[in-house]
Amino acid sequence: YYTVQVGSFSDANNAKNIVRELVSKGYDAYMEESDAKMYRVKVGKYRTRQEAVLMEARLSGQGYPTKICP
After folding, report:
1. Are 11 and 41 in contact (CB under 8 A)?
2. Among 16, 49, 50, 54, fewest CB within 10 Å belongs to which?
3. Does the predicted TM-score (pTM) go above 0.85?
4. What is the helix (H) or strand (E) element at residue 67, kind and residue range?
């Protein structure tokens, strides 16, 4: 599946704040912790890249930095 990454933070609280903000806007947002203690904020789990591209465009249009992750 594909996801849209909206940020990567070294502080978990910063990531949690963005997740709350996105969820309040109706997005399926969540946080993942990496081995390097980085906290990545992601939106959705899409079966096709095209679905992720559409969500990326929507989020990017609202000012979020985005990256599609396979």
Report:
1. no
2. 50
3. yes
4. strand 67-69
CB atoms within 10 A of CB 31: 15
DSSP secondary structure, 6-63, as one string: EEEESSHHHHHHHHHHHHHTT--EEEEE-TTS-EEEEEEEESSHHHHHHHHHHHHHTT
Scan for tokens 């109706």, then name that residue.
26
Q: Is the dihedral of CA 31, 43, 22, 65 positive or negative?
A: positive
| Amino acid found at 64 | Y
Residue 57 has pLDDT above 90, yes or no: yes
